[in-house]
Amino acid sequence: MVIEKYVHLAMLGLVWVFLLSGCSGYGKLRPHAREGMRVGVEELKENWSDYIIHYAEGYGGKPAAIMFDPKEGNKTLVCKKWIKVDDKETLLELLEWIQQSVRYTPRLWRILGPDDEFYGYMLSTRDHVVMKVIGDNTMYVYDLDPPHSGGP
What distance in Å separates the CA atoms of residue 87 and residue 93, rounded to the nearest whole number? Predict the structure, then answer.
């Protein structure tokens, strides 16, 4: 009976170790507090050529998120279905659409790795995006799920 108790405790401990180590490779979004930080939406707009920019479509084909991956630095964001932005005019249109969103309020986020390493910025109407580190300095940003329509 005593041995069974210790076996169960050991198994529970192993499950916790696997859960904690499995979650350690995921990225996270943290609110970007403008105060005391030098980058805001206006600075991203002005210095757009310093970033590799992608956006994800949301409800009605409008942008749900815009991702800014700094060209300088050793961290890289990669994605599959996100659409690359190659010119300032397109970026300005996207920013106008997302900032005038009636249904969802966009927020500027910092994209961080598991150990709080900085990867980039995201302006998004979502507060959760799944991201996973896939190499020493590379994080994969998964496609956004379509928003729920409110029906079953």
Answer: 10
User: Could you report the per-residue pLDDT of 77-92, keeping only the tens digit for each?
Assistant: 999 999 999 999 999 9
With respect to residue 122, please indicate whether it lies within any of the assigned structural domains. yes
Name the residue range of residue 65's domain: 25-141
DSSP states of 42-73 as a string? HHHHHTGGGEEEEEEE-GGG-EEEEEEEESSS
Its pTM stands at 0.77
Backbone dihedral angles phi then psi of residue 126, each to the nearest 5 degrees: -105, 155
Total count of domains within the chain: 1
Question: In the 8-state DSSP scheme, what is residue 146?
Answer: P
2 belongs to a structural domain: no
* pLDDT, position 129: 92
Question: Per-residue DSSP letters for 90-140?
Answer: HHHHHHHHHHT-SSS--EEEEEE-TT--EEEEEEES-S---EEE-SSSEEE
Q: Considering Cα of 111, then 132, then 27, then 130, what sign does the dihedral take? A: positive
- Name the band, by pLDDT with cuts 50, 70 and 90, for residue 16: very low
